[in-house]
Write a structure and sequence with these properties.
- By secondary structure, this protein is an alpha+beta fold.
- The protein has four helices and six strands; from the N terminus they run αβαββββαβα.
- It has two domains: 110 residues, Alpha-Beta Plaits (2-Layer Sandwich); 36 residues, no CATH class.
- Strands 2-5-1-6 form a four-stranded antiparallel β-sheet, with helices on one face.
- A hairpin with a 2-residue loop joins strand 3 and strand 4.
- Helix 2 packs antiparallel against helix 3.
Length: 170
């Protein structure tokens, strides 16, 4: 079996690691570019949590007005950023889609970034996933949030028509 034939059956996972924390505007621009590409299967945005309240010290319980905690719009859906965007992990259909994502990053970022292929998101359910999500868990949930957190409220699904693997049979 050729290498290209294998790639059509197993999606690739890539990580985009900018040399800077992304502003909400840059994150929105990048996500808009990414979601214009056919073959994007899953996108996970990672970064340090932006607190809503002071957790300790003299101001415990006071509201935090963090300038990076803004709402962005992706595919017509308004999403409040709860993290400083530090990296993105994507699952894409094939190498062609991967190169389109790289070009989107080069278009949006005026600064350097790391772009690597690897294994970043789970593909199969673990015992913990089975216990938390049950036997019929949506495979899109696997590896997207910390199972120890106990809830999946912070997970936002963006419904896009282009997210379907073009190599997949219905």
């Amino acid at each position: 079996m050729s290498d290209s034939a294998e790639n059509t059956k197993n999606p690739l996972q890539i990580e985009i690691f900018p040399s800077r924390i992304l502003s909400p505007q840059t994150a929105q621009k990048l996500l808009a570019e990414i979601y214009q590409i056919d073959g994007i299967l899953r996108v996970m945005v990672q970064g340090h949590r932006l607190p809503t309240k002071v957790g300790f010290g003299p101001g415990t319980g006071e509201k935090v007005e963090h300038p990076q905690r803004k709402a962005i719009e992706v595919e017509g859906q308004v999403i409040e950023l709860k993290v400083n965007v530090g990296r993105l992990r994507l699952e894409v259909a094939d190498a062609e889609v991967k190169e389109k994502v790289r070009k989107a990053c080069e278009k949006v970022f005026p600064f350097p970034f790391e772009f690597r292929e690897g294994h970043f998101l789970k593909r199969k359910a673990t015992v913990t996933d089975y216990a938390k999500l049950g036997p019929n868990a949506d495979p899109k949930l696997l590896g997207m949030v910390d199972p120890k957190a106990g809830n999946y409220k912070n997970l936002i699904f963006i419904d896009n028509k282009k997210g379907k693997n073009p190599n997949e049979e219905e």
